[in-house]
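On clarity, I found the account of how folds are encoded harder to follow than it need be. Since the whole study asks how a given chain folds, the encoding of that fold should be made plain. For the editor and my fellow referees, an illustration may be useful. An entry of this sort, consisting of the sequence and the corresponding backbone structure tokens, reads as follows:

:::
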Amino acid sequence: MNHPTTSRASLRALVLALVGTMVALVAPAAHAAPDRAVGSFDTYKPAKFAGSAPWGIAPGPDGAMWITELQGNGIGRIAMDGRVAQFPIPTPGSNPFDIAAGPDGAMWFT
């Protein structure tokens, strides 16, 4: 049985479309409960990531957000309190693309 190959870009577009659909379905329910607290969010533009082309992002087991730096050849971490850390990759030109939390609690990247 032959299956057509799917490019990473079309897979990413499909995932984003599915997430958008799920948000659209859940959003009315979230606004229906008058006793729910209104949340807020902060936007961070860490100078440490300047020119690094952040690409993949995933939550870590501790709630921090982990970011791949496609052109910066590193991995970044933004803690819940806003602290930013960078972890350079020792392999030159590795261009980390995506990142995910593994079942072992470690962050894995490609």
Q: What stands out?
A: The domain at 51-110 is CATH 2.40.10.500 (Thrombin, subunit H). Residues 55 and 74 are 11 Å apart (CA to CA). The mean pLDDT is 75. The beta strands are 54-59, 65-69, 74-78, 84-88, 99-101, 107-109.
